[in-house]
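debug: dumping io for the single-chain case to check the tokenizer round-trip. Nothing else runs in this session.
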Amino acid sequence: MADEWRPERGDLALVGDSLTQNGDWDALLPGESVRNFGMAGDTTDDVIARLGDVMDARPATIALLIGTNDLAWRRSVEHVVRNIETMLVTLRKELPDTRILAQSVMPRGREFADQIRDINRHLWQFAPSAHAGWLDLWPALALEDGELNPVYTEDRLHLNAEGYRAWAGELAPALERIRELPPNSRAITLPDLGGAA
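debug: decoded output
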């Protein structure tokens, strides 16, 4: 019966690096019960190493944003993509009833734009196979050349208060959208991007 299943808000786990850690999420996402699993300096390897802490918390919803520090360490696009795919698959397997939202790697200095776009394209295509939602933050935060909009940052990487408001303005409705569906709902169909990947 359709009305047997009801979404529950429950705890929201925000998983990532300093971008996540530094957010005042209680103010930015009123009404959410936020568990902040952001850790300054974390790479995708670091998040994999501490994924057990996130799973032990058994949150109702997980929003994941990680990857920019890997680029500073000169990790390849393939390394970042493989690690984030591993996280999504592991979370889905271990927490079958948790809603998962994968967020695009944020823009930063334009010199990283091509790599980040490549990572995000792969993750956008992969997320549905792990029954994860996808939030592309680039339309809200990036300039046309891939630079993080200077209105939102002082150092071309970290967000200022205005940047956090812009992020939260995208995140809040994305969380509502993924809560409208059961966590293991059928994967969405991707548009034909033309040619084989």
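debug: round-trip ok. Residues 142 and 148 are 5 Å apart (CA to CA).
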